[in-house]
């Protein structure tokens, strides 16, 4: 397979999905009206729908989907576990819990503080989950890692419910945000999230040879000169930052981080120099596809994006668990 053919295919798919996203919804907007809205603006209905609704949600899906796809790849690399993903491991729940505490108890509307709280919550939760899994049986064990992640996620989700029920003033706003999705989100947060995602991508490109070595066992990676613990912690921090900024923008969105890296590996390229951009692109494509499908599943109403992603993610999770079990038995 040509080296950059998968990248070109994914970019073409993303471009097509973005174009579709700008055209479809409760009301189909013809291409001429979409182009006029993008190039000339205006305050008519078509221009308002395209510029204030569809363009922002398309941008959110692109950036958040890419960030979660890359976060999933980093977590799977750091743990050597194909089931590692920010939603399943409770990292998204940690970010959400931190934001809820900040908003409820301080009443702040500062976007930078919200993004910072989400990143710190994601990081602390990641450290807690991996510490629990390591103490129980090692972070590469899918059963221990998933059990720790699901337990922490359930605990934090319960905490979120208690906090928001106790504060009716912010309940409605937070419940909408916690549902996870790409529509009606604060686009200004993208100005904070997008540079962070770019910086992490650049860092991953420099770390690519080290990430390849980390996929071997610790002894081999150490013999190759890789400071295993330091690199693993760095990768976990980068993944938590990506998950945190994603949650701050779109709320908790699961399964993209699980599916995107596995789609990227279908290219046949094992090196992270290829997998990093492919996981990023695959995550964006998945997010856009789910967002478009959500507009029609229960038309004219709109289904939660998380439901559509679960349709893909849950069967994949079951398949990976079964494959891991059969591999261990062999």
Automatic annotation (TrEMBL):
It is a multi-pass membrane protein. Keywords: Cell membrane, Membrane, Transmembrane, Transmembrane helix, Transport. The keyword Transmembrane helix applies. The chain crosses the membrane at residues 6-26, 58-75, 87-106, 113-137, 143-166, 187-208, 235-263, 275-297, 303-321. CDD domains: TM_ABC_iron-siderophores_like. It is found in: Cell membrane. Belongs to the binding-protein-dependent transport system permease family. FecCD subfamily. This is Iron ABC transporter permease. The lineage of its organism: Bacteria, Pseudomonadati, Pseudomonadota, Alphaproteobacteria, Hyphomicrobiales.
